[in-house]
Input
Amino acid sequence: GIQVEQSPPDLILQEGANSTLRCNFSDSVNNLQWFHQNPWGQLINLFYIPSGTKQNGRLSATTVATERYSLLYISSSQTTDSGVYFCAVPGGTYKYIFGTGTRLKVLA
Amino acid sequence: NAGVTQTPKFRVLKTGQSMTLLCAQDMNHEYMYWYRQDPGMGLRLIHYSVGEGTTAKGEVPDGYNVSRLKKQNFLLGLESAAPSQTSVYFCASSSGFGAYEQYFGPGTRLTVT
Output
């Protein structure tokens, strides 16, 4: 089945720094989502981005489907950006495959 | 528009007890899913439903049952809870599968002692 890998697994930033999170997937997909799991455990939809680039405030995402990767950019990070970032793609019958996540900590 | 809601938010059970988790969505989505999240394991699909009256097994269905009697509700049951079922449970819904966005509920933290 399709494999999803995220890097880096852990990231510590000072407030105001920029970062890039990566999601690699092993097969072609027609959907990719990025989620943020905040410190309270809630899973928040960030982007639905099967291809191309989208921006939402300080966050943007790019998916290059032909090369099987997606990038999530966080600019001017804030402490509220802390948490775990997951990407997910459809894989198999009605099953979404989640990466193992990037744990981000932003220090004040 | 509440999106996806889950009841309860927290629960502690003793081994062998039973309980039902309720998921409700108000987006008229056909597809609904139950996941569990464990440290280091990511999210794993327990059961899913592609429409009212239908259910199917996911990756880790043992020890769980589900029902989808109404389109907006998806129930997850534990008949005889075990400590291995201590986890955070998430419900999600989508209008379709594949090229469709999934929306998640806030989660239920279950501890089985």
In short: Chain A touches chain B at residues 30-31, 33, 35, 41-43, 45, 48, 50, 86, 88, 90, 94-96, 98-101 (CB under 8 Å).
